[in-house]
């Protein structure tokens, strides 16, 4: 069971709020608002995206790395991520994209 | 004239693409896709946001700082940004938000 | 055994190279080099720091989270990090500092 | 006159503090300190580097872009940066490196 299902509602709320923020940037451009204001709106979307990514990283580590041995014993889950090293590879590809 | 009007169409395209990417994240969560995939989608939205911000920064510097003296002479524009120092203050508040 | 001991030499080389890069920034300021050049030197130090952090994050996850159950069985190590959740807390405090 | 000369002492202090922080990371590795602590030290060096870069960016914009017309009139300076567009190109190459 992909861990995102557990906190699905919470993650969906975050993403929908971000969608709303992106629409606010679009409206600001359509309304030819001061570009300093547009830059602030874009900066706040980035902050929200960073918050979402931190949430996903934490869930990935706790559910696919920390809990991997336990899930393997119980035979539960989607069969992919009982290998904590594979889950670590996936984590690191995102971390390195952020830490270029 | 806020500089965003000059490149309005181009900026709007960028923002709408980003909106589409955020919707893709939402769909991935709804479809309970592998969280590694969700993280990659979020990382690509961040990359697109960074590209948009770089575009806005460059426009802000060229139109509200470099071109300020010229615009002041011509009496053109929205009356706000003929003061390049004020425009620099606005730029730096965004830069410092990114360089925390 | 803190995982940094295992790759100590490699990590020390990275940090010493970064120290050398910081000294290069200092020299550039002393020599009143073009500020664009100073900015490039600072940007390259940041790149090297990001590479070092990615290395430390990967080691922390593999040695203190993935290997935690095994180390707990063998009774090896420094007694701190056989709790993968505690190690995840430490990881997330760094991740959230980067993802503000 | 490269703007870094004006605030040379202040910038040098910042860089030397960062040098000291990098040495602290080196000592922590030599002393095999907990890797969570090493990660925190590296995160604080990054914060200091970001502060230095924001300082350099602000100076570059105010001295080589905002002040360019004035400096061109007075015939002062190092002959490079009386072209605010060239100085903007230099600024954007650093901004885009940070906003990958």
Automatic annotation (TrEMBL), chains A, B, C, D:
It comes from the Bacteria. Transmembrane segments: none annotated. GO terms for molecular function: DNA binding; metal ion binding. One of its GO terms (biological process) is negative regulation of DNA-templated transcription. Pfam families: Trns_repr_metal (PF02583). Gene3D superfamilies: Metal-sensitive repressor, helix protomer. Belongs to the FrmR/RcnR family. This is Metal/formaldehyde-sensitive transcriptional repressor.
């Amino acid at each position: 069971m992909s861990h995102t299902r557990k906190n699905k509602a919470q993650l969906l709320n975050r993403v929908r709020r971000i969608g709303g923020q992106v629409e606010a940037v679009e409206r600001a451009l359509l309304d030819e608002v001061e570009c300093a204001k547009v830059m602030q709106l874009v900066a706040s979307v980035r902050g929200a995206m960073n918050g979402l990514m931190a949430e996903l990283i934490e869930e990935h580590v706790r559910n696919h790395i920390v809990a991997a041995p336990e899930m393997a014993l119980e035979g539960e889950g989607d069969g992919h991520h009982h290998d904590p090293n594979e889950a670590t590879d996936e984590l690191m590809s995102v971390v390195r994209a952020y830490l270029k």
